[in-house]
Amino acid sequence: MIELLRRMRESGAPIAEPVFHGKRGHPLGIAPRLIPEIETLDLDVGLRQLRNRHEAELLEVPVEDAGVVQDVDTPEEYERLQS
Q1: Per residue in 6-42, is it b (16+ CB within 10 Å) or e — as a string?
Q2: From the CB of residue 61, how many other CB atoms can be counted at a distance below 10 Å?
Q3: Helix (H, G, I), strand (E, B) or coil at 14
Q4: Rounded to an integer, what is the distance from CA 22 to the centroid of its chain?
Q5: In terms of C-beta density within 10 A (0-12 exposed, 13-18 middle, 19 or more buried), how is residue 50 classed?
Q6: What domains are defined for the chain?
Q7: Among residues of the chain, what percentage have pLDDT more than 70?
Q8: Is residue 69 a contact partner of residue 62, using CB atoms and an 8 Å limit?
Q9: pLDDT in tens, 17-50
């Protein structure tokens, strides 16, 4: 995450996304100026909607951490990752 934020600051991008071997990951890096937009998002779509709104300004940051592409949205997914 530190690398993602550093690259955002250097580039001036308002939103950044880690990418592991071509696969988009999380968490997104979000500049303070975009925070008010979060309240306008459809909860069923989530931050993906913010990412799509600002796709032209999106900075993709290649990373070597497979954890950025793992989802942990349910207790079952968490348990699966623990085993």
Answers
A1: ebbeeeebbbbbbebeeeebeebbbbeebeeeeeeee
A2: 20
A3: coil
A4: 14
A5: buried
A6: 2-82 (3.90.550.10)
A7: 100
A8: no
A9: 999 999 999 999 999 999 999 999 999 999 999 9
